[in-house]
Amino acid sequence: MTYSAAVAGASGYAGGELLRLLLGHPAIQVGPVAGGSKAGQLLGEVHPQLPELASSRLLPTDPDVLAESDIVFLALPHGQSASIARVLPADQRIVDLGADFRLGDEGAWKAFYNDSYAGHWLYGLPELAGAREQISEATRVANPGCYPTSVAIAMAPLLAEGLVGDLVTVVAASGTSGAGRSPTETLLASQVMGSMSPYKVGGVHQHTPEMEQTLTHAAGRDIAVSFTPLLAPMPRGILATCSIDLADGVRTEDLRECLHAAYASERFVTVLPDGRWPQTSSTLGGNSVHLQAAADPRTGRAIVVAAMDNLVKGAAGQAMQNANLMLGIAEDAGLTDTGVAP
Ligand SMILES: NC(=O)c1ccc[n+]([C@@H]2O[C@H](COP(=O)([O-])OP(=O)(O)OC[C@H]3O[C@@H](n4cnc5c(N)ncnc54)[C@H](OP(=O)(O)O)[C@@H]3O)[C@@H](O)[C@H]2O)c1
């Protein structure tokens, strides 16, 4: 059986990556593609990396355009998904790559997004304990944010097993595509190249409550996150360094064993061999997270590092995993953990 997928936000970075993955999918075909200001343009002009779709024209983002497909991907800026999702058929499967439906706490949404609250959908991170089964039965799934995916994969098993404390410090660098395609002065090549800089410092990044929500759920107790994001001079990739107090007597071997046990059968998460540390270049283009952990006994801290591609496992690849589960096809259909390097 072949399914059709509609993509809203198809002219953006996440939408373009979805189209790239769909072109290699054995059971889901590209259906209607919709844009915002670029509606009417040919995909060949907007995404020259997708020659197979060069003659497809971007349609307006009208619910009627999206309503006939088996699955809809919404790859829109936050605040734009809810009004569309509300008028699509209730039994139509939707994966929202934006933040609109990720948070269960209305207060946290209003504090960090300063916008009206749309509600909460099932959080689509299949590698979290128990999530896969729920996603398979869902018609609406909120795809996680890019930084929160890396931090959840790195920290959830250690928190669930009680090997670490309850305040996670995250310093994570992202490539510039994490900010989307809209031009801004801070993303000019002359500002970014040859330089690294922090932004949204002091606990104000909007992904903070999402990380806390996921890690609190995994741990079964309140977990706080101190998050400092960095902008790195590369187009793609996230390198997240998470540190946290070690529980008494926990050693590097315990951290590594815990991560191994959690991810032994997960195709898209790799715990690297002892002594090798994640690098973004190894995950580029693949739907994968690479992990490594160490205990620092002198300071009593655990350090876990995760690398992944923000547009694949951090966005479109994860959305495809969710869509595959929702449609009842193999979770890894159309996806690879193979990266592109150098
Ligand atoms: N970039 C990442 O690494 C990443 C990772 C995880 C999640 N996400 C999330 O995915 C979503 C898309 O991100 P992105 O990086 O792809 O952003 P982007 O490159 O800026 O693309 C945004 C897309 O939304 C369309 N759009 C904007 N306003 C619209 C409106 N009012 N009505 C209809 N379409 C509209 C744009 O169309 P036009 O260009 O034609 O105007 C474009 O296709 C965001 O919610 C983002 O937070 C992104």
Structural notes for this entry:
The chain has helices at residues 13-23, 43-46, 63-66, 81-87, 106-113, 131-137, 146-160, 189-192, 208-219, 252-263, 280-283, 312-327, and strands at 3-8, 28-35, 59-60, 71-74, 93-96, 122-123, 140-142, 167-174, 197-198, 224-231, 238-245, 269-271, 289-296, 301-308. By secondary structure, the chain is an alpha/beta fold. It has 2 domains: 3-144 and 313-327, Rossmann fold; 147-310, Dihydrodipicolinate Reductase, domain 2 (2-Layer Sandwich), CATH 3.30.360. The strands form 2 sheets. A 7-stranded parallel β-sheet has the order 3-2-1-4-5-7-6. A 7-stranded mixed β-sheet has the order 9-10-8-11-14-13-12. β13 and β14 form a beta hairpin. α1 crosses α12 (312-327) and α7 (146-160) runs parallel beside α9. The chain binds NADP nicotinamide-adenine-dinucleotide phosphate. NADP nicotinamide-adenine-dinucleotide phosphate (NAP) binds at residues 9-15, 35-38, 61, 75-78, 80, 97-99, 145-146, 177-178, 180-182, 310-311, 314-315.
Write the layout of secondary structure elements.
Blueprint (H helix, E strand, L loop, with lengths): L2 E6 L4 H11 L4 E8 L7 H4 L12 E2 L2 H4 L4 E4 L6 H7 L5 E4 L9 H8 L8 E2 L7 H7 L2 E3 L3 H15 L6 E8 L14 H4 L4 E2 L9 H12 L4 E8 L6 E8 L6 H12 L5 E3 L8 H4 L5 E8 L4 E8 L3 H16 L15
Parallel strand pairs: 1-2, 1-4, 2-3, 4-5, 5-7, 6-7, 8-10, 12-13
Antiparallel strand pairs: 8-11, 9-10, 11-14, 13-14
Bound molecules: NADP nicotinamide-adenine-dinucleotide phosphate (NAP).
Shape: globular
The profile of the biggest β sheet is: 7 strands, parallel
Helical run tally: 12
Domain count: the total is 2
CATH architecture of the largest domain: 2-Layer Sandwich
CATH topology label of the largest domain? Dihydrodipicolinate Reductase, domain 2
Rg result: 19 Å
How much helical structure, as a percent, in the residues? 25-40%
Distance between the termini: 37 Å
Beta percentage is 15-25%
**CATH H-tier superfamily of the largest domain:** Dihydrodipicolinate Reductase, domain 2
